[in-house]
Design brief:
single chain; about 70 residues; mainly alpha; 4 helices; globular
Length: about 70
C-alpha cells in the first residue's frame, strides 16, 4: 500500500512540474531523502509521507480497521 501512495505522490508532483528539490524544500525534507523515497531505496516515515502528500495536494487520513 505504501508504494501506491508514494507512486501517486511522485506522479502528481511530476505532472505539476515540481522537482524533488522543490518538493523537499516545501516539505522540509532533503532532496536526497526525497529521491531515495521515490526510487524505493528508503522507506518513508509517516511524517515524510504526510509532508510530501501535502505538497502534492493530498491529505493522509488514518482509519482504524475492524478485526
Amino acid at each position: 500500500m505504501e508504494n501506491n501512495i508514494i507512486k501517486q505522490i511522485s506522479e502528481t508532483l511530476l505532472e505539476r512540474g515540481i522537482s524533488n528539490f522543490e518538493a523537499g524544500k516545501k516539505a522540509g525534507i532533503s532532496r536526497t531523502t526525497v529521491g531515495r523515497i521515490f526510487s524505493g531505496e528508503s522507506s518513508p516515515s509517516l511524517e515524510n509521507i504526510e509532508a510530501l502528500a501535502k505538497v502534492a495536494g493530498f491529505s493522509v487520513i488514518l482509519k482504524k480497521t475492524k478485526k
